[in-house]
From TrEMBL:
<feature type="transmembrane region" description="Helical">
    <location>
        <begin position="120"/>
        <end position="143"/>
    </location>
</feature>
<dbReference type="Pfam" id="PF05648">
    <property type="entry name" value="PEX11"/>
</dbReference>
<keyword id="KW-0576">Peroxisome</keyword>
<comment type="function">
    <text>Involved in peroxisomal proliferation. Promotes peroxisomal duplication, aggregation or elongation without fission.</text>
</comment>
<keyword id="KW-0472">Membrane</keyword>
<comment type="subunit">
    <text>Homooligomer. Interacts with ARC5 and FIS1B on peroxisomes.</text>
</comment>
<comment type="similarity">
    <text>Belongs to the peroxin-11 family.</text>
</comment>
<dbReference type="GO" id="GO:0016559">
    <property type="term" value="P:peroxisome fission"/>
</dbReference>
<keyword id="KW-0962">Peroxisome biogenesis</keyword>
<protein>
    <submittedName>
        <fullName>Peroxisomal biogenesis protein (Peroxin)</fullName>
    </submittedName>
</protein>
<dbReference type="GO" id="GO:0042802">
    <property type="term" value="F:identical protein binding"/>
</dbReference>
<dbReference type="GO" id="GO:0044375">
    <property type="term" value="P:regulation of peroxisome size"/>
</dbReference>
<dbReference type="GO" id="GO:0005778">
    <property type="term" value="C:peroxisomal membrane"/>
</dbReference>
<dbReference type="InterPro" id="IPR008733">
    <property type="entry name" value="PEX11"/>
</dbReference>
<keyword id="KW-0812">Transmembrane</keyword>
<keyword id="KW-1133">Transmembrane helix</keyword>
<feature type="transmembrane region" description="Helical">
    <location>
        <begin position="82"/>
        <end position="100"/>
    </location>
</feature>
């Protein structure tokens, strides 16, 4: 029990940890609002207020986050030309997302003209979606290469401890990257709902489930071991 509490404290000390918790609030309240909108309008309105407040809070938490992509490119551009290109495109899209998200937040809270919100939301979602596509491609390539390397080790190795440790690391990395792919795919659906509204992506259940998949996959990735 104490170990779980310690891990929760460490998790919530991270900006990403707080973001995943508030994101859970945001999309649970979205689903609650959809579920009780017709049967209990008063409670549904409170759920909607919780959803909106959570969304705005997350934007405040992400202030300055657009610099993260720049720092990633500066510190680890990638081992090959292909990965450097994928990293450039993915992180550039993420930087656009977080940069315009600042203006979206300011327009939603009334600091800037509210009419800017729609345009800022589109530009933010477009950058976000572009970034997610290239993050997914990069992760899938690494997962594929990891599977090939694992098979090679199992086939040619003789079960030595260092080889088994390498296989263990490959499998652990694969789980984390699959979580990242799940989160990015879910967030891509949310981004597409903003870029090109349609009945499927914009349905409350689709958005709610996508938001929770993203939040909980991110929760798993950020939870201290």
């Amino acid at each position: 029990m104490n170990d779980t509490v310690d891990k929760l404290v460490i998790f919530l000390a991270k900006r990403d940890g707080i973001d995943k918790l508030v994101k859970t609030f945001q999309y649970v309240s979205k689903l609650v609002h959809w579920h009780i909108e017709k049967t209990n309008p008063a409670a549904a309105a409170r759920a909607k207020n919780w959803e909106v407040a959570s969304g705005l809070s997350r934007k405040a938490f992400r202030s300055g986050r657009f610099l993260t992509g720049f720092n990633s490119l500066r510190r680890n551009p990638g081992p090959t030309t292909t990965f450097r290109l994928l990293s450039l495109l993915a992180n550039s899209g993420e930087m656009v997302y977080f940069f315009f998200d600042h203006f979206l937040w300011l327009s939603r809270i009334g600091v800037l003209d509210a009419k800017l919100a729609k345009k800022m939301s589109f530009m933010s979602a477009f950058g976000e979606s572009v970034g997610y596509v290239f993050f997914i491609v990069a992760d899938m390539i690494i997962i594929r290469d990891g599977i090939k390397e694992e098979r090679r080790i199992v086939k040619t190795g003789d079960g030595e401890k260092d080889e088994m440790e390498r296989v263990k690391r490959i499998r652990g990395d694969r789980v984390m990257r699959l979580m990242a792919v799940a989160a990015n795919l879910a967030d891509l659906v949310i981004g597409l709902a903003e870029i090109e509204p349609n009945p499927f992506c914009n349905h409350a259940v689709t958005l709610g489930i996508s938001g929770l998949v993203s939040a909980w996959a991110g929760w798993y990735r950020n939870w201290p071991l």
